Amino acid sequence: MDLELSPDQVMLDDIAKAMFTGRPRDVAVDTELLARLDADGYLDVLRSAGPIEAVLVAERAAEAVVCGPVVARVLVAPLAGAHDLPATVGLVAGPSSLVRYAGHCEAYLVLDGDEAHVASADDVEVSPVASRTPYPMGRVRVIRGESLGEGSGDALRRAWQVGIAVETSSMALAAVAFAAQHVTDRHQFGRPIGSFQAVQHRLARSHSMAMATRWLGRRGAWFSNDEFITASAATFACMTARETYDNTHQVTGGIGITSEYGLTDWTMRLLALHAELGGAKAHSRQVARARRAATT
Questions:
Q1: Which of 87, 107, 78 shows the shortest CA–CA distance to 36?
Q2: How far apart, in whole angstroms, are the C-alpha atoms of residue 120 and residue 78?
């Protein structure tokens, strides 16, 4: 197994990091950035280059907490077989589920039992919902939509699980790096907080879980037709999200929960991802079903 990125992939990763760094975080959707990504072909990189390349773009977008559904458009939609979509795509799990970027998307991918549907912004009704997460949230009622065909529901679910893992890993790694800098700079009892073993163990555990989630997400993107792999990635991502939230806020103390400090840019988004698509219980049930199906 080759775990090293190719020179072209390294270049793409560097370009994506440069593009996303420093983008505004006080807008609902960064339309200028999404228009640039669309014009330059980055939103369709999966079709032109492959799933790992799409993951690299998605990872950098999540790490930089780009304001917009980049991961849904660059990774989830094409993995699910939905192409030629507008730049902003929302993911809808059901009529009562919360939808990130609801009301700010030009199209929606809707999970409806065994089928997935594509609905335009004119084909849905959006009810905004106040949320403590940094995402604009709402409930989406689908009036009509175009089916992606038989079995497309499972394909969308698997692709969505990959997206959850990819986003979670990148945000968790960024949160851990932010917290690590805090415990390096912050001194108590005449020494950096980070010199205490208990603090080191918390951040080391979160970092190792985030890296494991990263590779599970990449594997899921490559084997997006394997429900056991994609559901396992999403299940572990939920564990990582909760562990990272708890540990990074534990070591940063009271300042970590303030919006001004910046840690919540990642951790509050992690909580939203933790609950998406039914959360850890739903993903773990799919792991069990997939394993049982493979052994019978």
A1: 87
A2: 17
Contact 140, 99 (CB under 8 A): yes
pLDDT in tens, 183-218: 999 998 899 999 999 999 999 999 999 999 999 999
**CA dist list (Å): 95 to 33, 69, 140, 291:** 30, 19, 6, 29
Q: How many CB atoms lie within 10 A of CB 275?
A: 15
| Domain shared by 246 and 161, yes or no | yes
Q: Can you read off the two tokens belonging to residue 242?
A: 């909760």
Q: Report the Cα 155 to chain-centroid distance in Å.
A: 17
Residues 7 and 63 in one domain: yes
Mean of the per-residue pLDDT values of the chain:
96
Neighbours of 213 (CB within 10 A): 29
CATH number at residue 140: 2.40.110.10
67 has pLDDT over 80: yes
Instruction: Give residue-wise pLDDT tens across range 216-273.
Output: 999 999 999 999 999 999 999 999 999 999 999 999 999 999 999 999 999 999 999 9
HSE at residue 42, side-chain half, CA atoms within 13 A, is: 24
- CB count within 10 Å of CB 113 equals 8
B/e letters for 6-30, b = 16+ CB within 10 Å, e = fewer, are eeebeebbeebbebbeebeeeeebb
SS percent in the chain: helix, strand, coil, step 5: 60, 10, 25
Q: Which of 98, 120, 147 is the last residue of a domain?
A: 147
Give dist(CA 111, CA 160) in Å, integer: 10
Give the C-alpha separation, 71 to 87, whole Å: 11
Q: What pLDDT score was predicted for residue 296?
A: 76
pTM of the model: 0.96
Q: Which two tokens stand for residue 180?
A: 């690590």
